[in-house]
Amino acid sequence: MFTGIDEVDWASMRHAYGSAEDVPGLLRGLASADPAEREIALDGMYGAVHHQGDVYDSTLACVPYLFTLAAREEVRDRGGIVELLVSIGGDGEVAEGADAGYAMARAAVRAGAEVFARLAGDPDAGVRRSAASAVVRFLDRPERVLSLLRERIAVERDERVLLALTEGLGFLAHRHPAHAAEIVELLTALSMAPYGPGQRLAALGQLAGNAPDRLPTDLVPTVVGLLRERSGQRPDPACEPDRPDTNTLVGRLRRLRPSDEEGSQLLRTLHTGLDGRVADRIALLNGQLTSPDPTDRCNAMWMSFGLFRDWRADYSTPVALIGAQLAAEEDQLRDAATSVLEDLYQLAAPAADDLHALVTSRPELWVRHWEHGAPTLGEPLRALARSGDPRAVPVLGQLLATPDAPYDLGQVVAHLGPAAAPLAPALRAGLAGLSLDDPDIHNRATALITALGELNDTESLPLILRLLSGLPDHRMRFLVVGAALHTLGALGGAAREAIPVVRGLLDGENAIEAAGALWTLTGDAAAVLSVLLTPDGDVVAHRGATEVLARLGPEAAPAMDGLRRETEAPHAWVRTPAACALWRIGGEAESGRVLPLLRSTWARTPELRRPIAECVAAMGPAGAPLHDLLRAELTAPQRYIAPCGGYAPLAVLSDERLLEICRSALGAA
């Protein structure tokens, strides 16, 4: 298996962590009789030789040995080796301009692809399963691949392998459209009796992505029925082979996988294929969430957030069904439910009663303690507070009275609105109790100051000034100072005694925030402009500078030439705030420049729609030429961040805020 391996100059090669002289040991470890040693070796291959998908000269040198290992029946866990080869070869064509190593890796794996064809009939089901994915990606001649998949489907009896073969058909249809019609006919046949429920579900998922017109008219009841039939046939997890308990990434990922990984993949594939058929997806989700099988319900929750994140709809029923899982005895169901609900914010309201019941009955879940780092709010309590439910307030108050309150508690206050007002005394007490020398002060101080600002708590002013004057130099000091200045600005005239302190910060690393606070407190445009503009009249290179100039309105007239230059910048993230500031300063006289820019940016850069909508709202009736954009947004089925891959935990919140801004602007007009 390792002929010539010691003659290779591994020491001259590299991997992610330097010299590749340890690679022969990893390759030999893959052939070890000890399962823990095999897993550690595979972890090392992914962690160093193929780190995060990268290809090194040592990666290329490993390919022949990996093929040899994959072909030897006496080697255990060869399915993982085949998966590693597939990952090294890549999932598609190499992009133009990519590093030459990726093209060489793909060519090397393609050159050995005949091994995958033989492994498709290997005695080991795990090898056959991995080979099914490999042949459709690397074997030449799609007609031969299709014939091979047909043959294997006809004789295969292992459900996991059948699912992989069916998924391979869908991949082949997508990659080779000339053969798609023949493949669709085969998938259509596989989606019907007498094939088993798992394979029928797999075929329906591939039809959804490749030929949705071939899906049955009664899709949802069909799928729900097949899911329940499959659940009744699913083997007991206790019958699964034992695996080593290694402290490796490979081991941790295996332990994190759903107990029914194939079922999870089936559902994810089907939902992905259905895409914008939101009504069908909601009905399917409701069916999954009412399944008598807890594993099916858990799978439904883990994939539900993808639907909530990408599409706008009435989700009250599935959210309430997710809330109902909080009362289940299985911890896995509760954890899955809270994981989804905490990122839905106000959309989690239909589950608020269930969240409150869990919070009330399980005080030990109020705080999450970590092996390293400060404690944080427990997920059920965080979800309840983020939903805006005032029943979270008394519990938060109890936590604030403890000496080790979660540092992120103040972050949920904004979502509770006026109902959080009773928390102000405890928030002040928490701020007063902070030690200025604490190296982690920035986390809790920032959250507490921000929360007090949200509550417009003027009594906290002396505590904020204490921080600004007494906080020692610290690499994270700017975060605390920035939060304090923002809160002083929010307090407005009630914070006038802070003016000298704020002026003293105009030449530090928080100069922009200090300028914004000073404008609110004094209206001293000259002092503020001296910070925000260069001697040549350009806007200083800081994103916040443009936002502060917009707040000055006509008083920022000296900045207009600099802002006009910024509207010509190559990046939309610079042009857009400059255009909005220009409008707020110059008014309708700037409409010829501003309105076309905002319209084009709205279409080309969806991530900027929120600040554009805020700008249009501020225009009042003068923003009418752009109201068609807001009206179209309110009727669009897809969330605005979905096409550009927004940060998932904030996607729903950000989109709902955009819709609120659009409704408010059009209502005022």
Structural notes for this entry:
With 669 residues, the protein is mostly helical. The protein is 62% helix and 1% strand. It is built from 36 helices and four strands. A two-stranded antiparallel sheet has the order 1-2. Strands 3-4 form a two-stranded antiparallel ribbon. β1 (14-15) and β2 form a beta hairpin. α9 runs antiparallel to α10 (180-190), α15 packs antiparallel against α16 (294-310) and α35 packs across α36 (648-668). The radius of gyration is 30 Å and the shape is globular. The relative contact order is 0.04. The mean pLDDT is 91.
Total of helices:
36
Given the C-alpha coordinates, what overall shape results? globular
Tell me about the largest β-sheet: 2 strands, antiparallel
- What is the structural class? mainly alpha
The count of β-strands is 4
**Mean pLDDT across residues:** 91
Cα radius of gyration in angstroms: 30 Å
Binned, the helix content reads 55-70%
Calculate the terminal CA-CA distance, rounded to whole Å. Answer: 76 Å
Low-confidence segments, given as residue ranges, are: none
How is the largest sheet built, in terms of strand order?
Answer: 1-2
Question: What percent of residues are in strands?
Answer: under 5%
